[in-house]
Amino acid sequence: MVIGVVLAGLLLAPDFRVCIDPGHPSELNDGFGVSNGLTETAVNWKVSVLLKKQLERMGGFAITFTKSSEKQLVKNRERAEIANRFNADLFLRIHADAVPQSGFTIFYPKAQGKAQGKVGPSRQVIERSGRLAAAFHAAMAAELKGVLPDRGVKGDIESNIGSKQGALTGSIFSTVPVMLVEMCSLTNKHDADWIRQPVNQQKMALALAKGCAAARDAAISRATQRLGGR
After folding, report:
1. With contact defined as beta carbons under 8 Å apart, do 220 and 11 qualify?
2. What is the band of 223 on the pLDDT scale with cuts at 50, 70, 90?
3. Other residues' Cβ atoms within 10 Å of the Cβ of residue 69
4. Which of 14, 145, 190, 215 has a C-alpha 20 to 30 A away from that of 59?
5. Could you give the CA distance from residue 60 to residue 55 in angstroms, rounded to a whole number?
6. Residue 8: pLDDT above 70?
7. What distance in Å separates the CA atoms of residue 224 and residue 220, rounded to the nearest whole number?
């Protein structure tokens, strides 16, 4: 995790650890359904690969994926466990929505939920996820201003699965800060036509990367404040 060490009065932070989770296939949805000529699994994978390359170019990030190929099935609990083992500073879940409205949305756990007999995430993860989601959202929204509508930051409970469980399964089993980004809506023709274009997939990857950078800065700032208060 980003804690850093003090040397000559400076906070030296290690690489910010991002676990990229290209959404689907999972135990709930294979993501292979076609909307406006696109499948969510393919879009999630393409943008996630571009995001990894963008973060590598920016530097200061350690990166892992929750799966090794586009169509690999990984259960949502397993995805969280991969992020936990990586000791991620951010478990970033990449999805595309299926709603009539155009735009992007960020979800994070505002409260605990229950799935498979597990109650979670912890209060600490909820607090840290909220802080990083706010920073991530501001940066992503600035990059996509005038391109896609900003549908805001919402609690998991406002999502379909979260409304039944109190939080998303990936959040419930996460012991690290977590958020899910619905990049756009594939059932909205405007959004589908936009994300179909390779240049716009790059644009989305850049917006996500800037969100990661803002989350990293927020985490380092918090760690600096805590060290200063000792």
Report:
1. yes
2. confident
3. 8
4. 145
5. 8
6. no
7. 6
- The two beta strands, 90-97 and 178-185, are parallel
The overall pTM is greater than 0.85: yes
Coil/strand/helix, residue 118: strand
Here the tokens at position 62 are 């350690």
183 SS3 class: strand
59, burial (CB in 10 Å: exposed 0-12, middle 13-18, buried 19+):
exposed
| DSSP structure class, residue 156 | G
Distance of CA 196 to the CA centre of its chain: 20
- What three-state secondary structure class fits 124? helix
Please say if the pLDDT value at position 227 is more than 80: no
Domain tally, the chain: 1
131 assigned to some structural domain? yes
Residue 117 DSSP code: T
Q: For position 42, which CATH number holds? A: 3.40.630.40
Q: Is residue 8 part of a domain?
A: no
Q: Is residue 5 part of a domain?
A: no
